[in-house]
Amino acid sequence: MDSGDPTRSFPLPSEIEAVPGAENWRSMYPYFTRFQPGDDQRFWFYNSMHFPEPMPAFDAITAEIPYTAIGANTTRLFVLPTTLGIEHRIVNGRVYITAIPVTDPAEIGRRAEIFSERAGYYYQNWDRLYAGLKDRIAGLISEIEAITVPELPEFEDVRVVMQSTGVAQNHYVRENFHKCLDLYSKMWHHHTEFLMLGYGAYVVFFEFCKNAFPEINEQTVARMVAGIDVIMYRPDDELKRLAKLAVSAGLAEEFPEGCDPEAVLAALPGRGEAGRAWLAAFDAVRDPWFHVSTGDGFYHHHRSWNENLAVPFAALTRYVRKVSAGESLDRPTATLLAERERIAAEYRALLATDEDRGAFDQMLGVCRLVFPYVEDHKFYCEHWFTTRFFQKIRAFGELLVRKEVLADPDDIFYLQHYEIDQALADLMLAWASGGPPLGAAHWRPVLAERKRMLEVLKTWSPPPALGPVPEALNDPAVQMLWGITQDTIESWYSQSAAGDKREVRGYGASSGIVEGTARVLRDVNEIGTIRDGEILVCPVTAPSWGPIFGKIKAAVSDIGGTMSHAAIVAREYGMPAVVGTGQATKRIKTGQRVRVDGDRGVVTILD
Q1: Spatial distance between the Cα atoms of 500 and 483, rounded to a whole number of angstroms
Q2: What is the pLDDT of residue 527?
Q3: Domain spans of the chain?
Q4: Among 34, 398, 532, 593, which residue has the fewest nearby CB atoms (within 10 Å)?
Q5: Helix or strand (DSSP H, E) at 556
Q6: Where do the H-state alpha helices sit in 213-330?
Q7: CB contact at 8 A, 292 and 303
Q8: What's the pLDDT band for 7 if we cut at 50, 70, 90?
């Protein structure tokens, strides 16, 4: 993003000092993630939506590969007219990004002509192409699940000799590790193949509405495509179904609040046929619907529900209580659908010509056709595939533990994927020669230091943005997904300059006004601390947090636009929300009373 007035600036990248005690943080990441001298003249913002924590060395691949795929699709494949790809940098373990705009009118026109043909083909054949995408992603999931990690036994299996295969197991150590990375890259290319087109259709409709109805706000436009039925909500729906089954089978007392999931599962067979039937239903749900990350799919330690049953059980026990009390578990989808039709009809009636009404109908129709993908893809990509991906990488860590290179399987995630290549090459050579691998002496001190530095880096409070305040920010994708507009930037700048105030401003993401006690979460692993009736304040909410939305009054997030996942989920659950504040988790404390105005996008600190 281009720079603006040099006298109005957030901290420059070159001015960010290393956190004391973590001066060597750069050693954890590849050279191309470091800020360069010329980056001081550019505007960057902290991508806390996807990366709210310092990045372990391996986890940095969840920025490297997605931005490779996003850039290829927007810049080279579909040729979006006004934007190229996204560049990212890491400082003190945090990911900052900037979009590269296209500003020359002639170049925009040239790209628009190419984009129109390519995107038009997808929009006109969306259902068929989307079905093909689902098949491709399902194939990638099957491939990642089928990958095996060689055992490297003392002697090779005799079949290798008798069948004359000619390849020993140590070869497949590296080949299968690379296959994991290659499949992850392919998944992200398929992921963004449709994603930017989904946002692109909405951006076109949004710009039409802003031109036709200058007073319309972003949330009103978003509500015209609300009420979508998407797969990302299916895991939560399955929990509700299991809760209803538990109550109807007379098993409600087996699910007290705070129960130990493993103890519950062990006790149910003793409840006879009803208990066994519930367990069968539970086992049927787990694959695939519990392959959902407790986060948003970008950190290895955000395990799946299958790996951490405490997360789904926290919601399940609450649902059992609600069903037992005769309360409804349904989302207000019918209300949202009726509202979206009313709003669309009212604004359509304001258009003066048949041509404008026809354009409105066409653009809105395309939005409603393509927009479910924006949420659907997350289950297949960031959740099902990615939790399996991290499990396979962890299995390579288990191999390195068996060979006494690492002390714990998760230690592998504190190495760059380039460094894992070295550790595996060392192991392959050692197994072939009969000697010991040398990795333990080399890597264990490195790992201990990196773990220590990451703990130190957690104490750093990253600025919401770096570099000069831009004169104008008109990137539609950045606005819709991250909620970064010129107004957002000006708000961040004024708040940082003026110090603490009683108001925190952002985007009105979901309508309604409520007051309550704040619960500030900076880590997904703190979800279990939320209490009924609190207001969640966090860097960003993930779609997989849907089960907790029934507990809270409202949600406030630092990052997110009106079409971010946090905003979409909040609207689908009928919960007031303000996103894109940039400052909420810094200025609001747990226990404070706050008022959330989801219409105006304002959070007021009451005490």
Answers
A1: 22
A2: 67
A3: 2-120+458-482, 231-290+298-324, 501-605
A4: 532
A5: strand 554-557
A6: 218-223, 234-248, 261-267, 272-289, 310-324
A7: no
A8: confident
pLDDT at site 490:
80
Q: Which two tokens stand for residue 387?
A: 């939790």
Contacts of 45 (CB under 8 A, 6+ apart): 96, 97, 98, 464, 465, 466, 482, 484
- Residues 436-475 have pLDDT tens digits of 999 999 999 999 999 999 999 999 988 889 999 887 666 6
Q: Please report the DSSP string for 399-449 in residue order.
A: HHHHTTS-SSGGGGGGS-HHHHHHHHHHHHHHHHHTS--SHHHHHHHHHHH
What is the structure's pLDDT at 572?
Answer: 76
**Is 595:514 a contact under the CB 8 Å cutoff?**
yes
The reported pLDDT for the residue numbered 570 is 79
Q: What is the DSSP string of 115-154?
A: HHHHHHHHHHTHHHHHHHHHHHHHHHHHHHHH-------S
For residue 1, the 8-state DSSP code is -
Closest residue by Cα to residue 362 from 29, 120, 170: 120
Question: What are 357-366's pLDDT values in tens digits?
Answer: 999 999 999 9
Q: In three state form, how does the secondary structure of 169-235 look?
A: HHHHHHHHHHHHHHHHHHHHHHHHHHHHHHHHHHHHHHHHHHHHCCCCCHHHHHHCCCCCCCHHHHH
Query: How far apart are the C-alpha atoms of 160 and 364, rounded to whole Å?
Result: 60
Confidence of residue 200 (pLDDT cuts 50, 70, 90): confident
Q: Does domain 501-605 have CATH number 3.50.50.60?
A: no
Strands 94-101 and 465-466: unpaired
Question: pTM of the full predicted structure?
Answer: 0.88
User: In whole angstroms, what is the distance from residue 315 CA to residue 321 CA?
Assistant: 10
- Report whether 183 contacts 170 (CB < 8 A): no
CA distances from 79 to 97, 196, 603 (A): 20, 11, 39
Position 3 pLDDT exceeds 60? no
Which of 97, 74, 69, 95 is closest to 84 using CA atoms? Answer: 74
| Chain position carrying tokens 């299995």 | 395
Using CA atoms, how far residue 77 sits from 81, 111, 148, 252, in Å, is 12, 11, 33, 53
**Spatial contact of 156 and 171, defined as CB atoms under 8 Å apart:** no
For the residues 201-211, what does the mean pLDDT come to?
89
Round to whole Å and give the CA distance between 178 and 120: 35
Through-space distance between the first and last CA atoms of the chain, rounded to whole angstroms:
38
Q: How confident is the model at residue 525 (pLDDT cuts 50, 70, 90)?
A: low
